[in-house]
Amino acid sequence: MEVKICGITNLDDALRAVESGADALGLVFYPKSPRFVLPEDAARIVEGLRGMVPFVGVFVNEDPQRAILLAKSLGLDFIQLHGHENPEEWKVKEAPPLIKATRTTEEELSTLGNWSSAWAILVDGFDPTAHSSTGRPADWSVASTLGSLGRLILAGGLHEGNLLEAARIVRPHAVDVSGGVEASPGKKDTRKMKRFIELAKTLCFGERSVFRFQGGQKNERA
Questions:
Q1: Which pLDDT score, from 0 to 100, does residue 213 have?
Q2: Which is the catalytic residue, given 6, 13, 23, 176?
């Protein structure tokens, strides 16, 4: 199973995440996040690992053109949306593949049908005061019903102690972890990253890849 290490804020952590076996790295461009990274710092991280791992830019209610411009200037591979974005505004051919995050609330789940063009769906925990890296588990029973929508990424409060149970219930194609592999907000812990990734790699729920493009089908979710 693939693993995305999110909330990367510095090149050292990025390098150690890749050495630990991460399949993708996430950079958060949401100023209210404790893992917010400035574009110039993100540029150094991406350049330092160019071609080694896919990068995901995480945005919350950002203007589509601004987000796409930043993603292209940095060379990001995916855009991850964590707010209440309008799907019609994101139907832009120039956009990198989109990962749409949803929390397991009735309101947010009801809008997923409008994101049929998204490359993948990410299920996160609910926190009324936060949009990403909430540290709260998703409702795994609800998340387990979303696999039919396509590529499924499970996030929300994951760590070494609950990964196996969460994966057994949800059966995602990939998992996304941030706080669960940190020494402090924005600073990763190498041992935690290695152990988490080792556990995830013992699991596989289908051959569908989230972060590796195959057969040129970069913009199709099915």
A1: 55
A2: 6
Domain residues for the domain of 7 are 2-200
Q: What is the CATH number of the domain that holds 53?
A: 3.20.20.70
Q: What is the pLDDT of residues 118-150, one digit of tens each?
A: 999 999 986 655 555 556 788 999 999 988 888
* Tokens describing residue 161: 């102690």
d(CA 72, CA 196): 30
99 - beta bridge partners?
Answer: 80, 120
User: Does some domain include residue 220?
Assistant: no
C-alpha gyration radius of the chain: 16
CB 162 within 8 A of CB 188: no
DSSP assignment letter at 97: P
Catalytic (active site) residue 176: no
User: Based on the structure, what is the number of domains in the chain?
Assistant: 1
* Residue 81 counted as domain residue: yes
Looking only at the bridges linking them, the beta strands covering 174-177 and 2-5 are parallel
For the segment 160-176, what is each residue's pLDDT rounded down to a tens digit?
A: 999 999 999 999 999 99
Per-residue burial over 121-133, b = 16 or more CB atoms within 10 Å of its CB, e = otherwise: bbbbbbeeebbbb
Instruction: Retrieve residue 183's tokens.
Output: 């020494």
Residues in the chain: 222
Q: Which of 13, 23, 77, 124 is catalytic?
A: 124
Residue 213: inside a domain, yes or no?
A: no
For residue 124, indicate whether it is catalytic.
Answer: yes
Q: How far apart are CA 46 and CA 48, in angstroms?
A: 5
Q: Is residue 207 part of a domain?
A: no
Distance CA 121, CA 174 (A): 10
